[in-house]
Design brief:
The protein is of the alpha/beta class. It contains five helices and seven strands. The protein has one domain: Ribonuclease H-like superfamily/Ribonuclease H (Nucleotidyltransferase, domain 5, 2-Layer Sandwich).
């Protein structure tokens, strides 16, 4: 059973995920969209679920289709100032953005810090857990990280100074297993004749 479209305040962001090019003396490698890295689109509801997946790029045809698939038209979108989002935002209940180019990362409740937190977790998983992300199976790697994000609960915790703060803690393992099995309905994992994994299937997290 796939996750329902995201509602409420929904942050949108994209990340170019992949390894660093090999160092060559005197060669300066571009970053972000100037590289051959895969473009990952992230949509995350404030205090809610995330839906992340690989997209061809950050053009309007690529992102409009993706956002329409995972976000409810009633949502209030939060984005950076990528021009594509300005056009997409007209199709939703509300749209606000921050200008990262002018060092504006938060304006009251307007920010994409939640989406960037997920992006940071993806980066740490690449470096410290997976080490190598093949383009072919990238949706599976992203799906695992999204599943872990979506299976947490907010818990109030006091610091040493007695200040209360909300932290996210993983759901009980049996509840995670139940959610895993529910989302696994209708999916397949096929092996090649050599024991490898065949064509990737849609992954958890949308």
């Amino acid at each position: 059973m796939p996750l329902a479209p995201l509602e409420g305040v929904v942050e949108l962001d994209e990340k170019y995920l992949g390894g660093k090019p090999r160092f060559i003396q005197g060669v300066s490698n571009p970053r972000g969209k100037g590289t051959k890295k895969s473009c990952v689109h992230v949509a995350v509801a404030r205090q809610g679920d995330v839906k992340a997946g690989v997209v061809p790029g950050d053009s309007y045809p690529d992102l409009a289709y993706r956002v329409a698939k995972v976000v409810s038209p009633s949502a209030h979108l939060m984005t950076d100032q990528l021009p594509t989002y300005k056009a997409i935002g007209k199709e939703y209940a509300a749209h606000e953005s921050v200008n990262h180019g002018s060092k504006e990362f938060c304006r009251g409740d307007v920010h994409v810090n939640t989406a960037e937190s997920f992006n940071a977790i993806l980066e740490r998983a690449k470096l410290g857990v997976f080490h190598y992300l093949s383009t072919r199976h990238l949706p599976r790697y992203i799906g695992e990280v999204a599943f872990r994000w979506n299976n947490r609960d907010p818990v109030e915790k006091k610091t040493k100074d007695g200040v209360s703060k909300i932290v996210m803690r993983a759901k009980p393992i049996l509840e995670q297993l139940q959610n895993l099995l529910i989302n696994a309905l209708g999916t397949q994992l096929r092996r090649t004749i050599y024991g490898g994994i065949a064509t990737p299937q849609p992954s958890f997290g949308g």
